[in-house]
Design a protein that fits this description.
The protein is mostly helical. It is built from 3 helices and no strands.
Length: 84
């Protein structure tokens, strides 16, 4: 167990932040999965801006790396364009 008051607080903060980040990362993965599973052009085109916005926000808050966000955005855009 931690010996300092500050390290105990740091453990609490880290655990809380980890849960928060895991929730949003999982939500993002499910959204990308849902978009990739879509075969309807109109539905995919409607979902695309929402997913891209989510990826940008998570990259901005350092939940995911900015290059990972860029790669995912590129991949889902290619998928939506290939449906048309």
């Amino acid at each position: 167990m931690a010996n300092h008051k500050s390290s105990v607080k740091r453990i609490r903060q880290t655990a809380k932040r980890r849960l928060h980040n895991r929730y949003y990362a999982k939500t993002m993965r499910n959204a990308v999965r849902k978009l990739r599973a879509t075969t309807d052009q109109a539905a995919a085109a409607e979902l695309l801006p929402k997913v891209q916005k989510m990826l940008d926000k998570l990259a901005k808050k350092n939940v995911i790396h900015k290059n990972k966000a860029a790669n995912l955005k590129s991949g889902v855009a290619l998928h939506v364009n290939s449906l048309g």
